[in-house]
Amino acid sequence: MLILADALVSTPDRVLRPGRLRVSGRTIQEVGSDLQALPGEEVLELPGLTLAPGFLNLHAHLELSPLHGKVAPRLPFAEWLRQILALLPGLHATARTASILETSRSAAESGTTTILSILSDPRSLAGLAGTLPRIWWALEFMDLHGDPQPAVQMDRLAAWLSRHPGCDWHAAISPHAPYSASTDLYRACAGLAKNLRMPFTTHWAESAEEAELFKTGNGSLRPLLPDSWVPDSPSDRFEAVPKGSLLAHGNEMAMDDIQHLQTRGCFVVHCPTSHAWFGRKPFPLETFRQQKLPVILGTDSPASSDNRSLDLRVEARAFHQAHPEVSWSEIWSMLTTLPASALGQADRLGTLSPGAQADWVAWRLPPTPTPHPPTTPTHLAPVPTDPIPTILTSTDPAEVISVAGRLHRPEKI
To answer: In what order do the strands lie in the sheet with 267-270?
Structure first.
């Protein structure tokens, strides 16, 4: 299939006008401005639209949208967690399944074609036949009240995935957090991630309460843990984190911690709207940049954010507001090429280039005025000079979404 559009964003520094994309099955074959249709080739004309790679969201909780608005914002983290723990037993598997379908669809229609979703209740996958975006299911483990048997549970997830070969679904693993998962559990999950070649992610240094817990053994988080809980040594915890880990939040890391994790090739997944929802102190972006610890953007949970639709453009705008020194092009990379690399999918996802997966999004962008002499009426250019900030500041849904070559057009009324 040859796709014809007004423009195509291949990477932040490469915009083609016009944009033409040749796709065969699931894969991009050619990208250019002067591609011509081959004899008998199907042609999809998208006049007025700009093609761009789909975004990657590497920290989401698709199953928790029913908890949106159930807990007030700006609560201390321990109190928020206490209220969430009280609500979770009432969140039945069927509601979680419906949440996965609804939230993944809304995320895709705002430009996200890949999601890594934390999965705390595998029963929510029962009856699920497919999702619009491709998903890495990160099965979550805690061992506060016994052995969660991660190897057994991952085998069950693998068996379930094997029954859905037509879906773009994959496995990942996630010990919940250092206060709820022991170092032994971290090591077990790290071993499974290595042996099964799957992503490893965890909540890490999320709150001041967590930092206090490990510093003093007390604080507001302590009453939520069993009486038998004791903190593991910091060195053991860090050594249990495998290379290339995805660390969600990272708000309270000491300099030594940052340097150690940088040497292990880890990535921090920052969730700007959740950060603001909790009213946390400024995210230490400059420290991470100085220490060359990469930061990418995620959405976190609808239970701790105003971004219920998991729209990564909302996260991009919140991030730019908090960090105006960061260019829109760099933010674009934090949604595309950088998370693709973190997921082990560089050159396959987050880019429109030959050999990549056919994960693209078509946007209708508002025309931008082009300056003319005062005597000449202002005319409208068909495509903004730099479509990246225009896409990221737009609130309109995408016109067309392609995941592995499968097309979806959001319904309009």
So the answer is: 201-204, 246-249, 267-270, 295-297
Question: How is the chain split into domains, by residue range?
Answer: 2-54+351-408, 55-342
Give me the residue label for tokens 């093609």. Answer: 51
CA-closest candidate to residue 120, choices 98, 94, 141: 141
Residues 297-344 have pLDDT tens digits of: 999 999 999 999 999 999 999 999 999 999 999 999 999 999 999 999
What CATH number does the domain located at 55-342 have? 3.20.20.140
Residue type, 319: F
* CATH architecture under which domain 2-54+351-408 falls: Roll (2.30)
267 CB-near residues (< 8 Å, 6+ apart): 58, 244, 245, 246, 247, 293, 294, 295, 296, 338, 339, 342
Q: Give the number of other Cβ atoms within 10 Å of residue 17's Cβ.
A: 14
d(C-alpha 204, C-alpha 199), whole Å: 15
18 prior amide bond cis, ω within 30: yes
DSSP output for 273-330: HHHHHTTPPPP-HHHHHHTT--EEE--B-GGG-S-TT--HHHHHHHHHHH-TTS-HHH
Contact 192, 150 (CB under 8 A): yes
Q: What is the reported pTM?
A: 0.95
